[in-house]
Amino acid sequence: MLRLTLLGADSQTGSSLCAKCPHSAAGCCVAPPPLTLTDLARILKHDGREWLLAELASKRLEPSARGLSIRRTKARVSGERGAPRLTKCVFHGVTGCTIEHTRRSVTCNMYICESALTEDKAESAVAGDIRDAHARIMSDQVRLGERLIEAMSKAYPEGPPYDAAFFDWLVFTYEQALITETVPPLSPS
Ligand code: SF4
Ligand code: SF4
Predict the structure, then answer these.
(1) What's the whole-number mean pLDDT along residues 127-154?
(2) Is the CB of residue 108 below 6 angstroms from any atom belonging to ligand 2?
(3) Whose alpha carbon is nearest atom 5 of ligand 1?
(4) Ligand 1 atom closest to Cα of residue 15
(5) From the CB of 32, is ligand 2 less than 6 Å away?
(6) Whole-angstrom Cα distance, residue 105 to residue 64?
(7) Pocket test for ligand 2, best of 18, 97, 109 (most atoms within 8 A of CB)
(8) Is the pTM of the predicted complex or chain greater than 0.90?
């Protein structure tokens, strides 16, 4: 069964196939996508500044070229005794993702593989809606992200420090960019 919840940049998809993923015991979470500048701004809009700073301090999040990367770690794939260990996202627990969807990237919230999209032919209409929503939302995110990168390279030519002041600058710049964009608004935090 497929699920699509449309909430602008906070939209989410889901598939019942993910609980028994045919590709990996930890599903897509073996390869966590980075948190881009737009992801970070969205998290900040959801009161995530202290969470981001704490995750940076604990090195579960680490600065990368255009955002933060999520550390991978080797851990058990399920709570069963003797379950195999797998290298996967540090936020992946024995029953799936351990963080709120407001702390995840848009990619984590929206991505569904072709196996899941095509598993049930009766749900092809929902699959089509998911494809459309994914393309539209990702395109908005990329366009907005390019504006943030441009502004960041001017404001922080040496690279961003990813500290509290930078996060305040980022959320302000994101809000300014949204005013002149047609990007759908965030859901209320
Ligand atoms: S989207 Fe596909 S690859 Fe990812 S967890 Fe679900 S079934 Fe597995
Ligand atoms: S943040 Fe959550 S959904 Fe995204 S890769 Fe990590 S465990 Fe998976």
Answers:
(1) 95
(2) yes
(3) 27
(4) 6
(5) yes
(6) 15
(7) 97
(8) yes
HSE at residue 27, side-chain half, CA atoms within 13 A, is 24
Task: Return the SS3 of 93.
Answer: strand
**Three-state DSSP class for residue 94:** coil
Is 32 a pocket residue for ligand 1 (Cβ < 6 Å)? no
User: Is the Cβ–Cβ distance between 78 and 27 less than 8 Å?
Assistant: no
CA neighbor of 126 nearest in space, from 137, 138, 118, 115: 118
Atom of ligand 1 nearest to the CA of 114: 2
pLDDT per position as a tens digit, 25-83:
899 999 999 999 999 999 999 999 999 999 999 999 999 977 999 999 999 887 788 88
**Cα→Cα distances 114→22, 29, 119, 164, Å:** 11, 16, 8, 39
Question: Domain map of the chain by residue range?
Answer: 2-179
Interval 112-136: pLDDT, tens: 999 999 999 999 999 999 999 999 9
